[in-house]
Design goal:
By secondary structure, this protein is an alpha+beta fold. The chain has a single domain, classed as Histidine kinase-like ATPase, C-terminal domain (Heat Shock Protein 90), CATH 3.30.565. 33% of the residues lie in helices and 30% in strands. It is built from four helices and five strands, in the order βααββααββ. A hairpin with a 2-residue loop joins strand 4 and strand 5. Helix 1 runs antiparallel to helix 2. It is globular and about 40 Å long. It binds adenosine-5'-diphosphate and magnesium ion. Magnesium ion binds next to helix 2.
Length: 144
């Protein structure tokens, strides 16, 4: 880890159109780093899964326009990428249960319940801190 090479922070309202913005931010951040297409695809996936969770679950039943989502991307000298996605939403009451493949609280049946397992599998480390005041997901990935 050690020395920080580059870091960006974004704050945006919890609107579904910003899932795509977050993916593009991650792509732009990694441009010129010679990241393999496979690794880039994984990173875009985990960023959009985490941001989508903040928007649809964190701020469920809220008007997303007034609800902030925070995305932070930091690159360290040893090519460790740290992705942080944070919301000030309702939190996850049972994290162990939420981590189970196919577990979802979605009522419309649109979601797969695979977001958190994918984020865990596609990164080298994932840590979640959550409370009724919000959720923070920190993911680390060594860039190939
Ligand atoms: N940021 C969040 N805020 C509140 N609840 C969350 C958050 N992220 C995940 N969850 C909870 O964890 C469950 C599992 O998340 P995930 O694996 O991404 O599946 P899905 O999004 O398809 O439901 C969600 O259904 C939701 O109940
Ligand atoms: Mg999800």
């Amino acid at each position: 880890m050690k020395e920080i090479i580059n870091s960006i922070r974004a704050r945006f309202p919890a609107l579904s159109e910003n899932e795509g913005v977050a993916r593009i931010l991650a792509t732009g951040f990694l441009m010129h780093l010679g990241v393999t297409p496979a690794a880039l695809a994984d990173i875009k996936t985990v960023v959009s899964e985490a941001v989508t969770n903040a928007i649809v679950h964190g701020y469920r039943d809220r008007n997303g326009a007034g609800c902030p989502v925070f995305l932070e991307l930091t690159l360290y000298a040893d090519r460790t990428l740290v992705i942080t996605v944070r919301d000030r939403g309702r939190g996850i009451p049972d994290l162990e249960q939420a981590m189970q493949p196919f577990f979802t609280t979605d009522r419309e049946g649109e979601r797969s319940g695979m977001g958190l397992p994918i984020m865990d599998a596609f990164t080298d480390q994932m840590k979640i801190t959550t409370s009724p005041k919000g959720t923070k997901v920190v993911m680390k990935k060594r860039l190939p």
